[in-house]
Amino acid sequence: MTIHRRGLLASGAALGLAPIAASSLSRPALAQGAPLKIGMITTLSGAGSYIGADIRDAFQLAMAMEGGKLGGAAVQLLVEDDGLRPGQGKQVAERFMKNERIKLLTGIVFSNVLGAVAPDVLDAGGIYVSPNASPSNLAGKECNKNFWSIAWQNDSLHESAGQLATNLGQKRMFILAPNYQAGRDALTGFKRLYKGTIAGEVYTRLDQTDYAAEMAQIRAAAPDGVYQFHPGGLGIAFLRQYIQAGLMANLPMTLAAPSMDATTLAAVGDAAVGVNLTSHWNSDFPNEPSKRFVAAFQGKYNRMPTFYAQQSFDAALAIGAALKGTGGKVDDTEAFYRAMTPAKFESTRGKFTFGPNNHPVQDWWALKVENVAGKPALVTKDRVLTDHGDAYSAQCKF
Amino acid sequence: MTPGVALLLEQLLNGVQLGVTLFLLAAGLTLVFGIMGVINLAHGSLYMVGAYAAAVTATATGSPWLALLAGLAAAALVGMVVEFAVLRRLYARDHLDQVLATFGLILFFNEGTVLLFGRQPLFVNVPEGLRGAVRVLPGVDYPVYRLLIIAVGLGVALGLYLLIQKTRIGMLVRAGATHREMVRALGVDIRLLYTLVFGLGALLAGLAGLMAGPILSVQVGMGESILILTFVVVVIGGIGSVRGALFGAVLVGIVDTLLRAYVPGLLRQVMAGSEADALGAGLASMGVYLLMALVLLAKPRGLFPAHA
After folding, report:
1. Is the N end or the C end of chain A the one with fewer CB atoms within 10 Å?
2. B118-146: pLDDT as tens digits
3. Domain with A20 in it
4. Number of structural domains chain A divides into
């Protein structure tokens, strides 16, 4: 505990303790009948801020659609920005748990922030429901009964893309990712389900912005297709240079969902037409809950929801289902676990179940960028994987 | 032509293209560094200013010519204002003060850009008519836009040579570098001359930035990553030498590109794939610094030391 405090103080000193100190007056514990507080830590500033905004807005939408309740229980959402800094996320979590007496947290976008926050929450007996990041350790050896992933295990994004490349008959793939943990995981995940041969495997630099040398290598290797995972602005630069090099016309590109969300698509524009990708959800899903969600989201916020918004919406519904089972209480984590496990909510994905490690078992779909009414849009195609879990659940023992 | 040779040629062109971009930055840096004796870490910020001004103008007007003008004007203007407001006070100070002040300028420009344009990168399209690739040799297709960058870079190199070696202003610049007091005694306004030189360096940095805009994404901090390579170029070429900047830049561009392209492949023949790729990527990014160390061992003052 003392070590813990010291760590917090150190990071607090580095990041500026002022806002924390101002609100550190202890508040009374939950009064009888007061709404259940849910703490949301998410990324609302910096390059990834649109993701955090979608997660916040979709969660609030789910609450608003039930009149400020989830599963019949009145809830109150407290939202704080982590600034994509693990230290800041840790501080917010500490404050949520100590001062606000919050036991149920959600919202984190990035795995590195989650890596700092999740152990604190779980060690303190809290519950964390992830609407996005789900690194392999929390799905395998370090899995926890009180950690729930609503999105996917990170690897599934790339495994499904590998399966799609196989399905598309791409026999020789050229694969690229930046030389850091998530990049290496991406290529490993892709190769796990890809059945063809790898024509070339290239690790780019994380600070690289010009990919001319890689484009030449791709052309020289003459593969059937290209898979690349470059997050954020890197991915947009890569795609644009791929198009400029004239490769898009002849070499189909396969991507994971985060490489081509609605925001990236808007930045790349028409040139992205023809790109293949996989996702667990798309805004054109025909099931009723999804249609209702898309219409309500557009009605309230006047923009298309990304899949991040959908994940957060499903997270709110899943929490609602669990609260319904526990009568709106989260104090008994064992009861919460029992109520959450059956996933008794109408998922916007059509079907949704939890695997033995509290991670989703779900279908993955092929999407393609096509021109719809003069504008490039993501269009759902065939199913790629059915009831797909993750490779780590066997290592998980509660 | 065999595919291997075609690939090598394409990679060489990529190297030259990176090289001339580096040259545009290094030329300004080496002039300021060698002639005015100022270490300007904020040179990368001028590259960013040029890129942003051009990107914003291109988005607003759709005209590549207006974007070109806006990028050049903004970079030169900001450069001269910085010289007038900040650097002018630093000529007599030691290098540490200059580094501190210009590092402060980097923070100022980055945060200012965030305030004005946000953190989301801006995207500019390649101008109509410069899109697509052209066959430069049988079996070697190369993007037109990148060829244009090479042409512009080489044109600027020729122009700078003529300006510095053949004109009166160039003569004053050369004289100002070696005999500052004598030039002043002859009645030349050396301060105005320095402002102009700095403005010229800023203009070239802005040109590099605005040309890079349609290829890379225009974002905060884009100048810093390329600035480090630019300093390597200046040191390899010889401080103060524009000719050295040209040869150093092309050398660094080609070495960096070829190492990135071929080292992982060579390593893969002796070790497992993913290890070779990771190690190769690491070695390739070290390559230019090794090159710099080797050059400094053989020629401690760079390849083309400016006469002192």
Report:
1. N
2. 777 788 888 888 887 888 888 778 889 99
3. 2-152+287-358
4. 2
